[in-house]
Design brief:
- It is a single chain.
- This protein is mainly α.
- Helix content is 75%, strand content 1%.
- A two-stranded antiparallel ribbon has the order 1-2.
- Helix 7 runs antiparallel to helix 8, helix 9 packs antiparallel against helix 24 and helix 13 packs antiparallel against helix 14.
- The protein is globular, with a radius of gyration of 33 Å.
- The N terminus and C terminus are likely disordered.
Length: 734
C-alpha cells in the first residue's frame, strides 16, 4: 500500500540525518527543495484546503447523508410486485432542476435525499433554538404580560421558519454569488488569453496559460476544457471554448463575444489583422466593464440612502418613541432586555443583511496580492511594530481593555454624590440621580481593543500590498523599456541592466531586475529559475499574479528570439496598462459613494446617535416622576381641584400612565451603553460596506479600514454624548 506524501515526508525527516555535505549546502545556499518535495507539499496543501472548504450547508448535508446511509444498511426493502412503486419512489425523491444545476455549478457532491432533507433538519434546529430563546427570555424578563409572552412564543416559529428558508435558498444564492464573483475575473481571463495568443496563436496553450494564472470559476472551467480535450471528450479545443462561451452567455454577453472572437482569430493568417482583432476585443471588454461600473455607481445612490435610513434614522426614532410608548401603552418595551434585543441583535442584523445584498451586486475589479503570514517583511505572527516597539497584538488589546474599563469605573466613583448632597438637592424639590461616567468608557473599552486587534493584524500587510501595487504600476514601464532594448537585438542581460539604470528610484528596478541580473550573472540560473526558483527567485517574496504572468510571457517569448520577445513584452505592457485602467476607473466612479459612507460611519452616525442617546435621558426625566403615581410628583407647585383631577387621570390609579412600565425602563446610563454598543456594530458594518465597495475582496484593506474607523467614531460618539448631556442639563437631571 503506497504511503501518503505526509507519511513519506515524516519518514524522511525522522530517518534521514543531515550529512556534513548537506549542512554545508544549507549554510551556503539555504534550504534546497526538490521538485518532488514541492509537489508533495502542494498536494498536502490542496488536501488541507479542500477539507477547510466545507461550509455549514455541506456539513449539514454530510451529516444527513451519513444517517441515510446507516438506515439503508440496516433496512432491507423487499422487492415490490407493484410496477408503479418504483416510479412513486423516484417521484418522491426528485430534486428541482435548478438545485441540481446549482450543485453541479458549485461542484458540491450532495445527493437528492440529503438536499431535500436539509430544510427540514434546519427547521428542527431552528425550533430548538427558538425554544432556548423563549425559555431564556422568560427567565430573564419574568413577565406575564400578554405582549411579552406573545413575542417570546413567536420566537420558535420565526427561528424555525427563518432557518428553514435560509437553508432552502442557500444553494441557489451561493451559485448566484459564485457566478457574480467569477465574472469579476472576466477582463483578467480575456487578458491572459490574448497575451498568450499574441505570442503564438495556439488556442490550447492560451487556455492553459489563462487557467494557470486566472482565478474563479471560469479558470476552473478552462482547466476542465483542457482535460476534456486531452482525454478525447471534445473533438478539439475550439468545441470546448464554444461550450464555455454559450454556457456563460446568460451572465456575461461580452465574455461570450470575446471568447468567440479569440477562437476565430486563429483563422486569420495575417499577424497585423489578428492583433487588430485582439485590440478590438480588449476595447469591448473595457467598454463593457466601464458601463457596468457606471450603472452600479448610479444604482448605489438609492441603496446608500436606504442604508442611512435603516442604520441611523430608524434607531433614532425608536430611541425617542420607546419611553413615551412604554409609559402610555403600558408595555415594558423600554426595559434593558428589549433594548439589548433591538440595538445589539435585531437592528445590526437587518442592517448587515441589507448591506450584504447591496454588495452582492458589485462588479468585479482588481484582485490585490495576498500577503502570507510568513512574509519576511512582516513582524512575527501576532505582533505589530508601533513607534519602533514590537508589541503583541492580543496582549496589547487586552491591556487597553483593562486600563479603559478600570479608569472608567474609578472615575465613576469619583463623581458620585454623597448622601448629604442628595438630601440637600431633594429638599429643593429636584429629581436626583447619581451621576455616572462609565457609560463613556464601556463602549470605548470595547471599540479600542477591537480596533487594535484589526489594525495590528492588517497594517503591515497593507503596507506590503501598497508597495507591491506601486511596483505593479511601474512594471508596465519596465516591460516597455525591456522590449525596446530587446527590439534592438541586445542580449537579455544588457536589457535588464538598462532598465535598472534607467529607473533608479523604482523598486521594480532596484529590487526585481537587480536581483534578476544577479541570479543570472552570479548564480548562473536560467531565466525561469531566476524568476520562479522557490529559494532564489525574484518573485519569492513578491506575490503578484500580474507580474508572474508577465514574466511567464517573457520567458516563453525569449525562447523564440529577441524580436518576438520585444513584440510580446509590448503587448504584455499594454495589457497591464488596460488592467490598471479598469482599476482607476472603478476607484474614480465609486469615490463619491465610498467617501459618503466613510463620513457616515465615522462622523454622522456617531454624532446623531450620541445626541439622541443623551436626549432620551431628558425624555425619561420628564416621564419618570409619573412612575410613583403620586399627584405631587406631577407638579408640586400647582394646586387646585381641576389640576388634581387631571393629574389623577394621567398618573393616578387607573390613569393613562402605566407606573410599572415606567419603572421597568432602562436608566439613561444603561441606555447610553446599549446605544454605544450599537454604534460599534454600526460603524463596523458601515466601514465594512464602504471598504468592500472600494477594495472588493481585499480582506487586509477591509480590516485596516474598520480598525481605523472604530476609534475615531467612538471618540466622536463619546464627545457628542458628553457635550449634549452638558447642554441638556449636565450629568445630573434637573
Amino acid at each position: 500500500m503506497p504511503t501518503s506524501p505526509k507519511n513519506r515526508r515524516g519518514e524522511k525527516d525522522s530517518h534521514t540525518p543531515d550529512t556534513q555535505e548537506s549542512l554545508i549546502k544549507k549554510r551556503l545556499y539555504g534550504e534546497l527543495t526538490s521538485p518532488e518535495a514541492l509537489e508533495e507539499e502542494e498536494l498536502h496543501h490542496k488536501e488541507k484546503k479542500e477539507k477547510g472548504k466545507l461550509n455549514f450547508y455541506l456539513k449539514l448535508c454530510n451529516s444527513i447523508q451519513q444517517g441515510i446511509d446507516k438506515k439503508k444498511k440496516k433496512k432491507y426493502t423487499t422487492p415490490s410486485t407493484d410496477p408503479g412503486a418504483e416510479v412513486k419512489e423516484k417521484k418522491k425523491k426528485k430534486l428541482p432542476k435548478e438545485y441540481r444545476e446549482a450543485f453541479d455549478f458549485l461542484g458540491w457532491k450532495v445527493s437528492d435525499e440529503a438536499a431535500l432533507a436539509a430544510p427540514m433538519r434546519a427547521f428542527a434546529y431552528g425550533f430548538v433554538a427558538g425554544i432556548v430563546i423563549f425559555m431564556g427570555g422568560f427567565m430573564i424578563l419574568q413577565s406575564t404580560d400578554a405582549f411579552v409572552l406573545l413575542v417570546l412564543i413567536s420566537a420558535p416559529v420565526f427561528c424555525s421558519l427563518g432557518l428553514m428558508t435560509f437553508i432552502q435558498k442557500y444553494p441557489l444564492n451561493a451559485a448566484n454569488n459564485e457566478k457574480l464573483k467569477a465574472l469579476t475575473y472576466v477582463p483578467e481571463i480575456i487578458t491572459y488569453l490574448i497575451m498568450e495568443m499574441r505570442l503564438q496563436p495556439n488556442l490550447e496553450k492560451a487556455v492553459e496559460f489563462a487557467s494557470e494564472h486566472g482565478q474563479g470559476k471560469i479558470a476552473d472551467d478552462l482547466k476542465e476544457i483542457l482535460w476534456k480535450n486531452r482525454v478525447g471528450i471534445y473533438e478539439n479545443i475550439e468545441v470546448g471554448l464554444d461550450d464555455l462561451a454559450y454556457r456563460w452567455q446568460t451572465y456575461s454577453e461580452e465574455f461570450k463575444h470575446a471568447i468567440t472572437m479569440i477562437r476565430a482569430s486563429v483563422l486569420i493568417p495575417n499577424d497585423i489583422e489578428r492583433n487588430l482583432l485582439y485590440d478590438k476585443v480588449v476595447e469591448d471588454v473595457l467598454a463593457s466593464t466601464k458601463e457596468k461600473m457606471e450603472l452600479y455607481t448610479r444604482s448605489m445612490q438609492q441603496p446608500s440612502m436606504y442604508l442611512f435610513y435603516l442604520a441611523v434614522l430608524l434607531p433614532l426614532m425608536i430611541i425617542i418613541m420607546l419611553p413615551v410608548a412604554a409609559a402610555f401603552i403600558g408595555l415594558p418595551i423600554a426595559s434593558p432586555p428589549i433594548l439589548i434585543f433591538l440595538y445589539v441583535f435585531f437592528l445590526p442584523l437587518i442592517t448587515y443583511i441589507y448591506a450584504k445584498s447591496v454588495l452582492g451586486k458589485r462588479p468585479g475589479g482588481y484582485v490585490p496580492p495576498e500577503i502570507p503570514d510568513n512574509h519576511p517583511d512582516l513582524p512575527s505572527k501576532g505582533t505589530m511594530v508601533w513607534k519602533g516597539m514590537k508589541l503583541p497584538v492580543m496582549a496589547t488589546a487586552i491591556g487597553v481593555l483593562i486600563i479603559i474599563i478600570g479608569l472608567g469605573f474609578w472615575l465613576d466613583g469619583q463623581v458620585q454624590l454623597t448622601p448629604e448632597q442628595i438630601e440637600s438637592m431633594e429638599s429643593q424639590g429636584r429629581i436626583v440621580r447619581q451621576p455616572h461616567v462609565y457609560q463613556y468608557f464601556v463602549p470605548l473599552g470595547i471599540a479600542l481593543p477591537l480596533a487594535i486587534y484589526l489594525y495590528g493584524n492588517s497594517v503591515h500587510k497593507r503596507k506590503i500590498q501598497k508597495r507591491i501595487e506601486a511596483m505593479e504600476n511601474d512594471f508596465k514601464d519596465a516591460l516597455y523599456l525591456l522590449a525596446s532594448r530587446l527590439g534592438e537585438k541586445k542580449p537579455l542581460e544588457d536589457a535588464v541592466g538598462y532598465v535598472k539604470r534607467f529607473m533608479p528610484d523604482s523598486e521594480v528596478a532596484t529590487v526585481l531586475f537587480d536581483k534578476l541580473l544577479k541570479n543570472i550573472m552570479v548564480l548562473g540560473l536560467t531565466l525561469k529559475g531566476a524568476v520562479f526558483d522557490p529559494t532564489y527567485g525574484v518573485l519569492k517574496n513578491v506575490p503578484s499574479r500580474l507580474m508572474a504572468s508577465s514574466f511567464k510571457i517573457m520567458i516563453d517569448s525569449i525562447e523564440l528570439g529577441p524580436e518576438v520577445a520585444s513584440t510580446s513584452l509590448i503587448s504584455a505592457s499594454n495589457q497591464v496598462r488596460n488592467i490598471q485602467k479598469i482599476n482607476e476607473l472603478m476607484r474614480k466612479l465609486l469615490g463619491d459613494v465610498t467617501s459618503m459612507m466613510s463620513s457616515m460611519a465615522t462622523f454622522i452616525a456617531p454624532v446623531v446617535l450620541g445626541i439622541v442617546a443623551s436626549l432620551q435621558g431628558v425624555i425619561q426625566n420628564i416621564i419618570e416622576p409619573l412612575g410613583d403615581c403620586a399627584e405631587k410628583e406631577l407638579a408640586p407647585a400647582l394646586t387646585g381641584a381641576e389640576f388634581t383631577a387631571a393629574a389623577s387621570a394621567i398618573g393616578g390609579e387607573g390613569g393613562l400612565i402605566n407606573c410599572e412600565a415606567i419603572q421597568s425602563m432602562a436608566t439613561p446610563d444603561v441606555f447610553q451603553i446599549i446605544v454605544g454598543i450599537y454604534v460599534i456594530e454600526l460603524v463596523f458594518i458601515l466601514a465594512y460596506f464602504s471598504a468592500k465597495i472600494q477594495f472588493g475582496d481585499n480582506k487586509t484593506a477591509v480590516m485596516l479600514s474598520i480598525g481605523k474607523s472604530l476609534p475615531i467614531a467612538m471618540i466622536v460618539f463619546a464627545g457628542a454624548l458628553y457635550a449634549s448631556a452638558g447642554m441638556m442639563g449636565g450629568l445630573v437631571g434637573p
